[in-house]
Amino acid sequence: MSSFTETGLVKKLFDLNQSQQSIQTLSLWLIHHRKHHSIIVKTWLKELQRAPAAKKLTFMYLANDVIQNSKKKGPEFGREFEHVLVKAFKNVAQSSPEPKTINSLNRILGIWCDRGVYEEPKIKEYSTALNGTETIPRVEVNGSDKKRKGDSSSAAESEGAKKPRPATVSAEKKAKSEVVEVNGKVETHITLSPHQPDGDPPEPEDLIKVILDLENSASSDAVVRERIASLKPEVSELAALDKLEDKEAAMKLAADVNDAIKILNDYNARLAVEMDDRKKLTTMLRDFLREQQELQQQAENRLAEYQNKLSKIKEVQKEVRNHMNNLPDLTSLPDVTGGLAPLPSAGDLFNAHHH
Hints:
Layout: H1 6-15, H2 20-32, H3 37-50, H4 53-69, H5 76-82, H6 85-93, H7 99-115, H8 120-131, H9 152-162, E1 178-182, E2 185-189, H10 204-214, H11 222-229, H12 247-326, H13 346-354
Antiparallel strand pairs: 1-2
């Protein structure tokens, strides 16, 4: 994961576009660097206010994604955005937005209200800043709120309602669920506008911890495996029963069998836990790899951009040098004063005037 700098954040916000991948990638990066939530939100607001009107909705989509997807990591972003959203909605409203932009933002407000992202009084403040009225838009999935032509938020929400979301995304207690039909089967989903990420990439330290824990997994326990390998053959062979000659031998075999069962039950339970941990690690590695591939692509694009910029600067440098070489050397020019007397000083002129 690339390190956080304010300059880097400004660059990422400048490169942000309305595609789901662009919003998702930056949202994941911001959530990963949530310890910088204060400067992130301040910079987001500053760049939103500078952004052209056509791009302001994309900034709001990014904020919505970060606010909703960061809740399971902590409340930092929700609280920080809460203080600047009135300014943000006012700024969008004052930029002469298209009606579809207002409709998309009202849809976000309705979703926040239905899912309890913010308390109703706060939603009313945001609605007043955007619409000049406290009326809170309501979102209907199966009702009259259909997909509107040209409404990107509505389109994204409708698309999200048709596609099943990953099982790792669970509804939080305050969130309102939406009942939708998927392939003829009624399911309950929590969907975000304009998209839902596949899964949050793990923190590097969390990934390292899981890997280190697996070094002490059941399959690595040579001591227990040796105990199992050294179990008497009689405990797993029915033919051994035919060789029992007295009750004492039968009781001894029963004790050995019970011990073997206990050892195997305990070890099998540990193996089951290990299997779940390895599945979890596989998912974490997949999400981590996906994020690294996205960041690598960003880095490659940025490298190409700056290499091109460097090439242009070098061309300018070359032209400046050529221009400097063609300029005359003033030190080698002849003395144009021709031995004339120096000009009089201000004092000389003053004295001459009085005489």
